[in-house]
Design a protein that fits this description.
The mean pLDDT is 96. The protein has two domains: 62 residues, 2-Layer Sandwich (Alpha-Beta Plaits), CATH 3.30.70.1140; 253 residues, Aldolase class I (TIM Barrel). Strand 2 and strand 3 form a beta hairpin. By secondary structure, it is α/β, with parallel strands linked by helices. The structure holds phosphoenolpyruvate and manganese (II) ion. Phosphoenolpyruvate binds next to loops. InterPro entries: Aldolase_TIM (IPR013785), Class-I_DAHP_synthase (IPR052899), DAHP1/KDSA (IPR006218), DAHP_snth_FXD (IPR041071), DAHP_syn_2 (IPR006268). It comes from Candidatus Syntrophocurvum alkaliphilum.
């Protein structure tokens, strides 16, 4: 339930309203907007008399919220959330390029790619250490050693880093990782999401390939309900009947998510198409649709990559793409 207050509400009345709600075990969150102040009620509001509250002098409007997600809901939090990682910002008009290999393979590989994408304008380095592969016989990632190599690249090249976690037990290894990625296959791993809710670090949450937008938001809610509000949503393609691309990029999820939530939305054109040749057009389309960032797989030798080479673009292609994105962004920003 949300309560929209009249402008300049009488403080005494407001305090007693909040106290009364607290006495009913309802947590009241005050959101100060430019034009109005909103109280977001978290807890069981089913017994609250909406008409009684609506009749108070200090109340302009009361609404029951249908959506089961509250922390992620834009109605509760009208302004865009901006996630800061050092000097890098994502959301609220701040666009960030995340680039790097699907999997970390060696010190030389990750540092070479990191230095190249950095010089082309990437703000964050990606690199998987724990790889969720369809086959148990496929390369599973360098695991803890891969995390070490990511940390070395961070130190040597000076880019913040993102890597995927697959299990709660791996959490201690992620202490110095700047953003923790939850992959599509773990979007429903609620125990993992709850554990990530208790830490103080941004989480990039990927949409499961058969998850609805509402389910994605509910998974974000799991993290946020624990107190961690720094969630970045990632559309990485969903599974449809189409087989010409690895997944189907749901570009409409961008405006839909922008309406429903204040969280930043990042697009992954690599996993959503599965082919390097489609990455450029889908990246530009994502920028045009209002995305807050892109996460792109880049490999120095895609043909011999240990994971996802087919969809990885070269550092040269990334450099060209990054220039196009930078040209497009100011034009697109005029329309949003
Ligand atoms: C990845 O980013 O390499 C990855 C495994 O992505 P997803 O979870 O979207 O499949
Ligand atoms: Mn990959």
């Amino acid at each position: 339930m949300i309560i929209v207050l009249e402008q300049n509400p009488e403080e005494k009345q407001l305090d007693s309203l909040k106290q009364w709600l607290n006495s009913m075990d309802i947590n009241v969150q005050t959101i100060e907007g430019i034009h109005s102040t909103v109280l977001g009620l978290v807890g069981d509001t089913s017994t609250i008399d909406i008409e009684f509250i609506g009749a108070l002098d200090i109340v302009a409007d009361v609404k029951r919220i249908q959506e089961p997600y509250k922390q992620a809901n834009r109605r509760f939090h009208p302004l865009d959330t901006i996630i800061s990682i050092g000097d890098v910002k994502i959301g609220g008009g701040n666009f960030a390029m995340i680039a790097g290999p699907c999997a970390v393979e060696s010190h030389e590989q990750i540092c070479m790619i990191a230095s190249s994408v950095k010089s082309s304008g990437a703000a964050i380095l990606r690199g998987g250490a724990f790889k969720p592969r369809t086959s148990p016989y496929a390369f599973q990632g360098l695991r803890a050693d891969g995390i070490e190599l990511m940390l070395e690249a961070k130190k040597e090249i000076g880019l913040p880093i993102i890597s995927e976690i697959m299990d709660i037990s791996q959490l201690p290894l992620f202490d110095n990782i700047d953003i923790i990625q939850v992959g599509a296959r773990n979007m429903h791993n609620f125990e993992l999401l709850k554990a990530l809710g208790k830490i103080n670090k941004p989480v990039l949450l990927k949409r499961g390939f058969s998850a609805t937008i509402q389910e994605l938001l509910m998974s974000a809610e799991y993290i946020m309900a624990g107190g961690n509000e720094e969630v970045i949503l990632c559309e990485r393609g969903i599974r449809t009947f189409e087989t010409t691309t690895r997944n189907t990029l749901d570009l409409a999820s961008i405006p839909v998510l922008k309406e429903l939530t204040h969280l930043p939305v990042v697009i992954d054109p690599s996993h959503s198409t599965g082919y390097a040749k489609y990455v450029k057009s889908m990246s530009l389309a994502a920028v045009a649709a209002g995305a807050d960032g892109l996460i792109i797989e880049v490999h120095n030798d895609p043909a011999n990559a240990m994971c996802d080479g087919q969809q990885s673009i070269t550092p040269e292609a990334f450099s060209e793409l990054s220039a196009h994105v930078n040209e497009l962004l100011p034009i697109i920003n005029k329309f949003y």
